[in-house]
Write a structure and sequence with these properties.
Blueprint: H1 2-18, E1 30-35, E2 38-43, H2 66-79, H3 94-107, H4 112-122
Antiparallel strand pairs: 1-2
Helix pairs in contact: 2-4, 3-4
């Protein structure tokens, strides 16, 4: 009976550890509309508190396109919270990201191209 209890508890812990937490992206959603020749932009204020920067054209560099940065952000938010909380890009220097990311990407089973996109995002294209 004691062995069955231990096995049951161990199984529950494995399931809990392997369950991917849902990461909610709280990025502002902006929509534009053209009604009666009047342009208006609406921002969803309920999602304006995301600590993860949303790349814009001004963030692009010779090494990082807007698409690269946007994809990197998506990959970070979707995969980097599996084992721990999703780190903020500005929490580490470029050199620290370069040393930390390969091990974390391996654990998250990211491809080399996805790892590079995450690196571009967290380093703001300065990798």
């Amino acid at each position: 009976m004691k062995t069955q209890t231990i096995i049951l508890i161990a199984g529950a812990l494995v399931i809990a550890a392997c369950t991917k937490p849902k990461i909610t992206d709280t990025t502002p959603q902006t929509t534009s509309s053209n009604t009666n020749n009047t342009n208006s932009t609406t921002t969803n204020s309920t999602t304006s508190n995301s600590p993860y920067y949303v790349p814009s054209k001004t963030d692009t560099t010779a090494k990082a396109s807007l698409n690269d940065l946007t994809l990197g952000r998506s990959i970070l938010l979707a995969n980097c919270g599996i084992c721990h909380s999703v780190p903020l890009p500005d929490n580490y220097s470029v050199s620290k990201w370069k040393s930390y990311l390969p091990g974390m990407a391996s654990r998250a089973q990211l491809s080399a191209s996805d790892q590079l996109l995450v690196l571009k995002y967290v380093c703001r294209g300065k990798e």
